[in-house]
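Example record

One chain of 187 residues, shown exactly as stored in the release files.
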Amino acid sequence: MNNNDAFSAGVIPGGLNNKNEIRILICYILNKFNIPMKKSDIILVLQANGLANYFDISEAFSELISNELIVKSSENFDEFLITNQGQIIAHELEKSLPKSVREKAVNVVESYLERMRNEKENSVIITQNNYGFLVTCNIKDRDFKMMKLELYAPDIESANNIKSKFYKDPSEIYGKILGIFADIICD
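Predicted structure tokens for this chain:
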């Protein structure tokens, strides 16, 4: 067994095992999206998609903080922003990361942020009843509830699958349902 096997567990081929590259990737993400992000969210997204190992990401994140390349947001102390120096590093060194890693990181972070927005703007409530589970999906536009959809699920796994599918793209679901009734609405 290779000494690095324990530390590269969960990292896909082409993922990052070098802490310098992981630091660059974190700076690249924060610079690319230019929004405050939670450390736990960055770790979750990178680790869950096999781009880097949890311990390496955590260590790289701590080093970026101690080197003042990223700082805590003044609005939410759980979130971090990239500093001017971190932006310079990200810009100058981003090409040192494999293009496939940069593209995958951008795609998974975009998907994650979209899901977080969907969860913030909409809601899914799962309640157990005598027949299984009732999944209530609500689509809102600010304070106006545009749609409430209730679905039966025979078990909690099915209920959670409905919830996950709904949060993936609630506007698509709304559009499809509206499309079904479009001829009635337009008449």
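Notes: The CA atoms of residues 38 and 84 lie 19 Å apart.
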